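Sequence and fold:
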Amino acid sequence: MTEVPAGARPLPTTRTTPLDPPPELLERQQQCPVDRLRYPDGSEGWLITGYDQVRAALADPRFSSQKYLLRSPIQPQEPTPAAPGFFVYTDPPEHTKYRRLLTGLFTLRRMSQLAERVKEIATDALDAMEEAGPPVDLVPAFALALPSLVICELLGVPYEDREVFQHNSTVIQDINTPLDQAYAALDAMQKYLSGLVERRRGPDPSEDILGGLAAHEELTVEEVTNICFLLLAAGHETTANMLSLGTYALLTNPDQLAMLRSGETTMDSAVEELMRYLTVNHYGPIRGILEDFEFEGCPMKAGETVTLSAFAANRDPKHFADPDQLDFARGGRGQLSFGHGIHQCIGQQLARIEMRIGFQALLDRFPELRLAVPKEEVRMRDTMLIYGVSSMPVAW
């Protein structure tokens, strides 16, 4: 049974080093893996930081994904219902309906078939970097370019429009963006995508994912638009930040980079361990309580919001030995960065392929890759919902 300290406290968000969780977050994990949390709107709920507890909660249907139950742990927001198609904010049976439609579009076999195209895109980006010559900002030149083009081709979104959706995605993801501006950016994205959906609803639908979804007449234009919005945003934001932050981690952990280059470890193991160590989704996931019940000896009440810290869970010393060390030998097995349960990331196999190919291609092309500025001068995305690197000049 967990002994809960008296009084709810806000979520710790202040890092002392760029790659590690806030020290207070890990202290609270050791004190109480299921703790009271005070939300920015003044309400109280829960913070779960222990690996076993986070994993159990993600698989427990009493922890709901319904948006009207969710409060942000970092900014005051009024809980609202989710618009149709925002499947990450649904529970079964609604979630099951959407998930079933998408599962066939994101099979491991289909994602594996994309590998050659991912290699081509990586090669083109690296050719451009080499031609430009050092120093080059790795973020726009490679880390963002690779997954953005991949997800655009997969969905059927014109890559030449990338500046539009990348800008709006950044506005939405920034926790300092005023709500009216965030809603305006979301509206602009939805209008743009709905136009693409409308054009796909013809007698000859395209073979991309957008065309495949648009062909389902039981789905409204709004539903298809919002599904595509989620896939587009997640498809370039998370992988782009993993590629940039992962490269930073490699260049600042030369012993692990040497292991990877020498073949002492595999790229598969390295990617899983980087996912565990970095956990770019550093504020969630978030769930709501559907009914009164007891979890780990703690009295959960219907209507409360629960923040499940995958970041802390992936650094739990009760599950990962010496968790604050990047260790490719461990392979990151069991990491929770892609979630767990029915909401586990549907695009995780694509993300893995992009990271495996992207990191390998980068290291093969530039054996002497290094930071072009002191590591302390590399700018991080401290105010973003998805953590990563804002700018990282590299040389070779």
